[in-house]
Amino acid sequence: MRVLIMAKEGEQTEAATPPTPEAMAEYQKFNEELVKAGVVLEAGRLHPSSQGKRVRFDGKKRTVIDGPFAETKELVAGYWLWQVRSIDEALEWLKRAPYDGGTFEIREVLEYEGM
Amino acid sequence: MTAGPSRSVRFSSTRACEGAFTIGPRTGEASAGPGRLEAHRAIEAIWRIESARLIAGLARVVGDIGTAEELAQDALVAALEQWPADGVPDRPGAWLMGTAKHRAIDLIRRRKALERKHEEIGRDVEQAQGGLEVDTAIDEEVGDDVLGLIFMACHPLLSKDARVALTLRVLGGLTTEEIARAFLVPVPTIAQRIVRAKRTLAEAHVRFEVPAGAERGARLASVLEVIYLIFNEGYSATAGKDWIRPALCEEALRLGRILAELAPAEPEVHGLVALMEIQASRLRARMGLSGEPVLLLDQDRSRWDRLLIRRGLMALVRAESLGGAPGPYALQAAIAACHARATTAAETDWQRIVALYDAVAQLAPSPVIELNRAVAVGMAFGPAAGLDLVDALVAEPSLTSYHLLPAVRGDLLRKLGRYEEARAEFDRAASLTENVPERQLLRRRAAECAAERMAG
Predict the structure, then answer these.
(1) What percent of chain A has pLDDT over 90?
(2) Residue of A4, A92, A95 to mutate when probing chain B, most B C-beta within 10 A
(3) B311 contact A CB<8A
(4) Whether B284 and A113 lie within 8 Å, measured CB to CB
(5) In which domain, by residue range, is B278 found?
(6) What is A2-108's CATH number?
(7) What distances in angstroms separate CA B263 from CA B216, B220, B224, B340, one per listed residue?
C-alpha cells in the first residue's frame, strides 16, 4: 500500500530559518535508510504558508485567501509518499525518524479504484 | 508442518514463529488485551523491516541460510515473549540482532566444541576467541550482507521455483502461507521447496558472499530473473481467477529498488527496476471495472500512474548513464518507455520498438521475444509482415502450449480480414490459458471474429 506522511512541524513549519547541519545530516541518514529499504517513492518539502494560497468553494463562488495561514499546528511542511505493506510498518518506520517536535500524520492512499 | 527449523527444535516455542504473523486472538492467550495486540502488530511490522538484515548478518557469520533464519526466528520468539510485557525497545532492530547474536555465539561455541571432540585438534586459543570474532563480525556494516543473502537465495544451483520461494521468504519476510497463497500452491509444497532449497545450499557448501569477477554476471542474471519472475506472476497471473495480483508486483518492485541501492553500479539492475516501474504504472488501467483484462492498446492512459512512469524513466536514465551497451532489461525498459511516452496508442513509435526488439533478440534470443517483435512489426509495417514472422514461430517447440502465440496470430489474421482462421486461433489460445479472466477475453475475441465473419 501507499501511504502519505504529512509533516506537521508546528512553529518550525513557518520558520524561514533552515534546520541546523546536524539535524539535516540526521534527516538525510534516516531518509537514506528508507530509500535503501525500498520504502520512499517520493519526498518533498514545502515553502512557508506565507507563500501559499487557498481557494474556498461556496456553490459557484470562489474566494482566494492569501497566506500565511493561522492554524500553525495543522500546516504541512513536508511530505513523503511511502510504499509499505501495512500501516503498522509505516508506523514503525516513522517512529524512527529523527524529529524532536511536531506531529506526523500517516494516511493510506486510495488505490486501484474499481477493484 | 510448515517450513520451520530443519534441525531439532532447540527451545519449545520455536514453532510459534510460523504463526507470528497471524498473531492476535488466534494465539489464544488469556491475557491478550489491546496493549498486547498492539505490541504483536508492532512486532510483525518490525519483523518485516528487520528480518532480511537480521538473517543476512547471521548468515554471513554462521554460513548457511537455514541456521541464520532459525536464529533470527528465535530472536523473534524472544521478542514475542518479552515485548508485550516490557514494551517495544527503542531500537528494536538492534535488540533482535543482539538477541540473535548471543544465540549465534552459543551455537558456534557448541559447534567448535563438537569439532574439537571429533578432530582432537588442540587449537585452543583460536577456539576460545570464537565468540569474540562473531561478536565483532556481526556488528559490521550490513548493506553487503543483504546483497550476499540475495545472491545466496537466488543461487543458480536452485530451481527457479525454489529461488522464488526462498527469496520471498528470507528477503521479503513473507510466511510460507503467504507465499503459497500468492502462487496458488499448497502450503506444504512451498514449505518443502524452502526446506530443500536450504538443504541444497548447505550440502553444496555454497559460500555466503557477494560474487565478483567473471562469476558475478551470471549470478546477477539469476537474481534479476527471480525478481522479474515474481513481478510477472503478479503482472499477468498464469493461473487463477485474478488477472493481476498487485501485491506480488509490489514485492518484486521493493526487492528491485533495494537491489538498486545495494548494487548501484550495475546497469541491468536499474534496467530491471525501470522495466518494472513502467509496467506497474499500468496496473490500474490493466483491469476493467468487472475485473476483465484490458490490453495495452485499449487502456485508458489517463489511469496510468505518472509517479511510477517518472520513476521508471529516471531508473532508465540511471541505467543508460552507467555506459556500455544496454542489456536485455534496459532494452525492454526502453520499449516500455516508448509506450509510456505515447499519450495515445496511435502515437506509439512502433519502428523504434521494432529496432529495440531487434537488439533484445540479438542479446537474449528467445521465441517469446521473437513473438513480441512480430507484434511490433505488425504494428509498424502492417499485419501481413507481422504474420510472416509469427508463422515462422508456429513450429517452435517451446511455444506449442503458449497461449499468446495463437492470440497474436488471431489478432493479425483478424486485421487481415481472415475472420474464420482468427476465430479458431482465439479459441485455441483460450483453451491454452489457465487464467480465467484472460480465457474469457480470448473467448470474447473469438466470438467477435465469428460475428465479423457473418457481417462480412
Answers:
(1) 65
(2) A92
(3) yes
(4) yes
(5) 226-333
(6) 3.30.70.1060
(7) 12, 10, 12, 26
